[in-house]
Write a structure and sequence with these properties.
Layout: E1 5-15, E2 22-27, E3 41-48, E4 51-52, E5 64-68, E6 78-87, E7 92-103, E8 118-123, E9 126-129, E10 134-143, E11 151-165, E12 193-198, E13 204-206, E14 224-228, E15 239-240, E16 245-253, E17 255-258, E18 276-278, E19 290-291, E20 315-317, E21 328-332, E22 337-338, E23 357-358, H1 371-381, E24 387-389, H2 392-402, E25 424-426, E26 446-448, E27 474-480, H3 493-496, E28 504-505, E29 531-534, E30 540-543, E31 560-563, E32 578-581, E33 589-590, E34 593-595
Length: 602
Amino acid sequence: MNKKGIMVALVLMSIGFAAVATTLTITGTINYGYDTKDFNVIFSEAILDGVVKNELIDTGDKKSITFETNDLSTIGDRSILEYQVMNNSKQYDATVAIKCERVDGEGNVSDNQTSDYTEIIPSPESLTVKAQESRKGTVTVELKKVSTEEKEEKFKCSLTVNPGEREKEPAEYIADNYCDSVAKPNLGTNDKLIPVTISDDGTITKVSEDNESWYDYCKKKWANAVILKDGKAAPENDPIAMDDIESMFVWIPKYKYRLWNVDAENPLYNAHSIEIIFDKINTENVEGVSCETPMNEDNTQGLSGNIQECSNGEYMTHPAFISLGVDGFWVGKFETGYKDANNANAANQANGESTNIVVKPDVYSWRGATIKTFFTVAKDYNTDLNSHMMKNTEWGAVAYLSHSIFGINKEVTINNNDQYKTGYAALPSTDQSKFPGEVGDGKESNTAWNEANGVNASTTGNITGVYDMSGGVHEYMAAYVPGISEDGSGFQDDELEKDSKIIDVYDKSSAVNSYNKMILGDATGEMGPINYYADADTTNRFHNSWYADVSHFAGVTFPWFGRGGNCTYGVLAGQFTFTRHAGTADKDSGFRLVLAPSNQTQ
């Protein structure tokens, strides 16, 4: 295995007493056949000083890109180029080493590799890019000394790429059929949850829980169930009228996933297909293979930032399943609506009871209440099924499953319905200068959940998935940073102690960019690297590297998490968006319901 690909980056820097202009030229491609032609690694993205460049080096005729950096004017100023290496191979990992050298005016390697004026720092010098993954590195040019005369220095950075066959995982961790160990959906013991299938047109039919057509996660067909309104019944194999349904849910079976960004302070990965294995047995510490999920003594989510023995590339059981000791949970198929509301204003309710909850398409999302109100009504909805307000880690579990081979495996389309109606999806924009769901599209530019484009807003890309995870309303999470006796949520810290298993608690020192305070699996810090820049509206925001979704971590000032963004967010919304809030009643904020019935013998 001695084939290599070389990518060359030229870094040109002019140095003067005043501002210093820097030009970066990146040339070359990496795309070399290996054995079955499966080995395919490319340079796919450049970010210069935090700004994503549209120019990409691809496998076609385009071999180089050139652009200017910001000026460097004082000692210590830096210009940072972030590069991304994407490994599209299926059977081969790639080892990438970077070497930067000074060159003369003709581009030849200089005999003198030292300089009083600049320092070039590649980091890391070597990285491993696993099959179907991508990683980032940086090249930093730092001004060490200024000169009264203009100077120019050039650098050539070469990336050397070596393929290596993937080692097969131990049999006890990777089965040939990923779906062999899918946990059977738990319908509880009170006969409220009814297993159903949903056809492409939205027809809902009751089936037996032993019916093989109910679900097939290897075919992206997730299990669905409904709760009927009081007094309603549904014969098996007969369609169920939507008017007879009170709430709809989707089963998220227990799984472990391959870690990729354990160290949020030095992130190297970018959006990729998340590797998931369905399994009902919790992972243990096996170096290089798996790690025990960090948890507290009472089996609640491990203190944020506590990674224990976990390392990139190892598998870890997702914590959302461990805290409640379940083999899966039911997530509301849609955002929570307000019963009998016939317009958006009627669903903007500061008060309400659990009997006001509806979870189904084409209803107005419940908004305008404090987190305490949402938390209380969710908990009271069905105590036999352990109903509760969705947690950050549970959101993460759904988001990760969505971005795997068992889900849509990309960002879901925004629900941009400006009346806050559930189950809608933005239509592709006819204006090519806009993205689907961009601010201003409004309610006229979207389609329903059971129409052709509607399923693009589902976590599976088909009608069996979870909707409204992008846009709709901000979804308040049962996840917070403690330390304030009264924060606007209606809660005080001591009130939440008794509900520790249905709320995620983060480090009290957290701030807006404390991504290292994440809980592994919560879809926050793992979505790095995080960049800070101005959007089209000139507002500066933090954006993660998974579709540039807004990424504001909760802190003492705004201690509660919100997810997904609302209908006006446009391209800033997504299943990987996270924001911080005071937890007060807000016309754009709602919540999602989760059911976690206790394990049964399966």
